[in-house]
Amino acid sequence: MSLLSVHDLVAQSGPTRVVDGVSFAVRAGRSLGLVGESGSGKSVTCLSVLGLPPRGVQVSGGRVLFDGEDLRAKTPAELHALRGREIGMILQDPMTSLNPLLPIGRQITEMYRYREGVANRKARESRAVELLRRVRVAAPESRLNSYPHEFSGGMRQRVAIAMNLACNPRLLIADEPTTALDITVRLQILDLLREVQAERGTAIMLVTHDLPLVRRYCDDVAVMYAGRIVEQGPVEQVFARPRHPYTKGLLGAVPRLRDLQHRLTVIPGQPPSPGSIAQGCRFAPRCPRAQADCLSAYPATRAVDAHRSVACWHPEPDARTPDALLATAAS
């Protein structure tokens, strides 16, 4: 059963739809990777799901169901109570979610005070220490009075994760949580999220442009282009047999470490800006399979098997991707 179900979500900046009819689902205990080039609408989608669209953007259509309840029908106060307690969000830069003027111990204990009503200060601090230890912050007792700038980027991200885990949310939305970190710390952070998921059955929505990380850490994937989902399904199936030319192009751009002589696939051109999207398929100007009908109308999303869907007039043949690419994505 899906914990989060998004149906035909629309978010507009004036008359321009930056998120245009997006639908996807995240099941309890599973991870969904939302991938695509920069500017495809991934972050706006996440913020819109939480009822926090960026300034100048308004959610104007669709349904967002969390455990069967429509979040768009809730009042601001009801949404505020839901955030943090039921749904957490980890941002790309932890300095945007940590107050630089307050020690991290106070920031974590406030979650227990205001979200769970823990009145005793020592009890709150004890739980904060245990939580920091859980996310592998060394000597947590001595770090409660430290300020965010006294931590490294990786440690700040661990603190941000700890704050999100304080109320044991059922869904974690992680928006590019490891982009600013080196590869070793990046893997440590994602390993930590996977451990939390295994222990608590947390559903995770991972927003990223890093396909190898999706291959390694996610169960399902949704590929986004110019404000729309163009393909989605189980990671193994989508990576093995991409049906949308854009998905195939993204996978082809992943370096093959086991085949250094292989030339990377280049997707020609640039994604369209939200205000310049023409009629028809938005990927058509860059697509090697584009035909006349691709320029006249946007293709409807259709099922290609029991668990997969694609929005394309002329999808790729149902043929397996070379094993070298899959091995590279998994490494």
The average pLDDT value, as a whole number, equals 89
How many helices? The count is: 10
- Going by helix content, strand content and strand pairing, the class is alpha/beta
Measured by DSSP, the beta-strand proportion falls in 15-25%
Helix-strand string: EEEHEEHEHHHEHEHEEHHEEH
Oligomer: single chain
Helix content: 25-40%
Spell out the CATH superfamily of the largest domain. P-loop containing nucleotide triphosphate hydrolases
Radius of gyration: 21 Å
Sheet of most strands: 8 strands, mixed
Number of strands: 12
What is the CATH domain class of the largest domain?
Alpha Beta
**Per CATH, which architecture of the largest domain?**
3-Layer(aba) Sandwich
**Which outline best applies?**
globular
Question: Runs with pLDDT <50, length 5+?
Answer: 323-331
Subcellular location: Cell inner membrane
Pfam family, one: ABC_tran
GO molecular function: ATP binding; ATP hydrolysis activity
InterPro entries: AAA+_ATPase, ABC_Ni/Peptide_Import, ABC_transporter-like_ATP-bd, ABC_transporter-like_CS, Oligopep_ABC_C, P-loop_NTPase
Which properties best describe this structure?
331 residues, alpha/beta, Rossmann fold, 2 domains, 10 helices, 12 strands, 22% strand, globular, disordered C terminus, cell inner membrane, ABC_Ni/Peptide_Import, Oligopep_ABC_C, P-loop_NTPase
Write a brief structural summary.
This protein has helices at 42-49, 76-82, 104-115, 121-134, 153-165, 183-200, 211-217, 235-240, 245-252, 323-330, and strands at residues 2-13, 16-27, 31-35, 58-66, 69-70, 87-90, 171-175, 203-208, 220-225, 228-234, 302-303, 309-310.
